Give the backbone structure.
Amino acid sequence: MNAFEDTGGGALLPALPEDWQRGMAVVAHPDDIEYGTAAAVARWTTQGKSITYLLATRGEAGIDGMHPDQAGPLREEEERAGARAVGVDVVEFLDHRDGVVEYSLALRRDIVRAIRRHRPEVIVSGAFSVRMVGGMTNQSDHRVVGLAALDAARDAGNRWVFPELESEGLEPWGGVRLMCFAGAERPTHGVDVTGDPMERGIASLAAHAEYTKGLGEQGFEPRPFLTWLGRMGGPALGVEAAVLLDVHELIPQGPPPWL
């Protein structure tokens, strides 16, 4: 099934459960969250949920013609502005090097540290597969951070993995119920972002004005792109506009499916 097709036989994807209060988005770069996922974040913050952003890099290698020493602080500020547009106040950066993020114990530890501090029930990241939605080839940093986030969600609950974090006062947190991956080739759930959530998601991406200037000869317009993306995902959920996610259930809510 392609992400932009229904599930076959007219069946629709289920809506992502929303019976939770704390979430975290873990991505590689400033603007990664804003390519669709921010609209879902807008929906959740309107519901009163607390969402935290965690970025592995400051996106310092992302603007051709601008030195990383200048681009990093600029993109950090754009990310914070984009986060505010969807009701997110806490944005943290891990300072891994943009473009060459490595899957490592250090990266997993950094993500675990944040998970234990903020104690999310749901984590959203980007797809860690080689191919993304529509068959697009995924980028290295995205793959690395997505997989590290999945592993860290389990690591966070095991006191014998990174036991040194307890000396920082960070007790294990095994409460991550759902790991959700945006941009996946085969999504399993969706979030209705019709109306105001989509509008706020567009404003969030528009906050990355300097970065998006360099995307193509004519620049980049957030509204037509995100409107198209949401409307392509909507039919899979039976709504006008949706963000589609591949969801891993880390804390089963019932008996195993084989019983």
